[in-house]
From TrEMBL:
Domain of life: Bacteria
UniProt organism field: Luteibacter jiangsuensis
Protein name from the UniProt record: Nucleotidyltransferase family protein
Pfam families found in the cross-reference section: NTP_transf_5
InterPro entries: NTP_transf_5
């Protein structure tokens, strides 16, 4: 480790935790942190990476002009982008009605529709749609008619991007960033190799054409928790995920939680809810946590007891060689996971190629183009920083006036 990476690592961890607690408490008037210029830049990086700049703009009263300008700019970009997304959703809804296609708008769009967020509060990287297998190709044709083209296909979804769109290389949110659409036929996650599928719990029974909401708050909560679980397993959690869950949880009655147990035992729901309870005190009913503790495997239950946001997200600067191993529920799953890490499947190789082709922040990075054996050897001999983290840190250091030194 060079001294500069030591500073970045510690600064990211510390600023992330302070920002998380500031937003979770939502108590205006807390003292402005006595951070160095580097720490303020790292706080910008953390806020952008975790999708919380717009919400912090509403709640924090820290008196630092450069910090305030950054938050106000971010909220403005998110609000403008939200209008584009809302207009696009209306066009998709009209096209679906005309074509006889039942769709569901997932996650961020659903949270906005419930009024949990106002325009500008929550960034949305893309639009997620759930469609039945029988309507998937027709929905793809609809998206093409709206100016989209297929970008790539993974096991979770098909991704469509606007034709002739160019990425915007900026810190955090930008109003001109293209709005991609992810088309899902299943709601499922690999944790870490076994697939958890909750499609039956989430899909609405209403088959009329157009965009529909989730059938219940519990169905939406199930999806948010499974999505967060997948991100925790892959060390890519964002604080906005926890904020989503906390906001919805405070509106739910005891009966609203029951759909979480409508399918197989939700053993995977404890880690994200424990994190929510750690930052948002009183948001999660103790009875729900108690039931999930009985469902959760002992190893995973022990692992997540003391974990923090910064240890399970990109705020942890170093890549983890075996992310998610503790989620294995049997020796067989663990062996399968290790085998896949040592010798990636063809599907994993293709996913990596798609990422390198479509994610601008990964391009021109020597680490990501190394062969798998070289990367494994490097992991074993020295710490390797995350490319996504380095990208946002570099953008934060370039933001505004040059950083002294």
């Amino acid at each position: 480790m060079t001294p500069s990476l030591k500073l970045v690592r510690r600064g990211l961890r510390d600023t992330t935790e302070i920002l998380a607690n500031e937003l979770a408490r939502a108590l205006p008037g807390t003292d402005t942190p006595a951070w160095s210029e580097l720490e303020w830049r790292l706080a910008m990086a953390a806020a952008a990476a975790h999708g919380i700049s717009p919400s912090l703009c509403r709640f924090t009263t820290w008196q630092r002009p450069a910090w305030r300008r950054f938050l106000v700019e971010q909220r403005g970009h998110v609000e403008q982008r939200h209008q584009r997304i809302a207009d696009l959703l209306r066009r998709i809804d009209a096209g679906a009605r005309a074509s006889g296609l039942p769709l569901m708008a997932l996650k961020g769009a659903a949270l906005h529709a419930l009024g949990l967020y106002a325009a500008g509060d929550r960034p949305m990287a893309d639009i997620d749609l759930l469609v039945d297998d029988t309507h998937a190709d027709a929905t793809a044709d609809l998206l093409v008619s709206l100016g989209y083209e297929a970008s790539f296909t993974q096991w979770k979804h098909r991704v469509f991007k606007p034709r002739d769109a160019s990425p915007v290389m900026a810190l955090g949110e930008h109003c001109d960033t293209p709005v991609n659409i992810e088309l899902h036929t299943r709601i499922h996650e690999r944790l870490p190799v076994a697939t958890v599928d909750i499609t039956a719990q989430v899909r609405t029974a209403d088959a009329t054409p157009g965009i529909h909401p989730y059938p219940s708050p519990g169905a939406l909560m199930s999806h948010l928790l499974l999505h967060a679980a997948g991100n925790i397993c892959g060390r890519s959690l964002r604080f906005i995920h926890l904020n989503d869950i906390a906001l919805l949880a405070t509106r739910m009655t005891p009966a609203d939680w029951l759909p979480l147990w409508a399918g197989e035992t939700p053993w995977w729901a404890l880690p994200p809810l424990r994190l929510v309870a750690r930052y948002y005190r009183g948001a999660v009913p103790a009875s729900v946590l108690g039931s999930l503790e009985r469902d959760c495997p002992p190893l995973l239950r022990a692992f997540t007891r003391y974990q923090t946001l910064s240890s399970l997200s990109c705020s942890n600067l170093w890549l983890n060689a075996l992310p998610g191993l503790e989620w294995s529920r049997s020796p067989r799953e663990a062996v399968r996971y290790l085998r896949n890490r040592l010798r990636p499947t063809q599907e994993s190789v293709q996913e990596r190629k798609d990422m390198l082709r479509t994610q601008a922040w990964l391009q021109d990075q020597p680490w990501v183009t190394l062969g798998h054996r070289r990367r494994l050897l490097t992991w074993l001999t020295r710490p390797v920083p995350r490319m996504d983290t380095l990208y946002v840190v570099r953008k934060a250091l370039e933001h505004g006036a040059p950083l002294p030194g």
